[in-house]
Amino acid sequence: MKELLQKIIQVLAQARQNRQTVTAQSAELSKQNNELAEAHRLLDEFLAENDANTYH
């Protein structure tokens, strides 16, 4: 019984650590996604300006 409780505590501790890791990874991916969206917006803006300069 004691071994089972120790195993449950170990599994719960690992689950908590995994959740913290996933939360941190999610925050980093969100940040990278926002940076990518901004880069995409700037590229679209640049291409539109370039097209305007090319054809007019």
Summarize the structure.
The chain has 56 residues and is mostly helical. The chain has one helix at residues 2-55.
* CA-CA gap between termini: 81 Å
Low-confidence runs: none
pLDDT averaged residue by residue: 96
Tell me the quaternary state.
single chain
Task: List SSEs in N-to-C order.
Answer: H
List how many beta strands DSSP finds: 0
Instruction: Give me the secondary-structure category.
Output: mainly alpha
What Rg, in angstroms, do the CA atoms define?
A: 24 Å
Helix percent band: over 70%
Shape: rod-shaped
Number of helices: 1
Descriptive report:
By secondary structure, this protein is mainly α. It has a domain at 20-56. It is 96% helix and 0% strand. It is rod-shaped, with a radius of gyration of 24 Å. The mean pLDDT is 96.
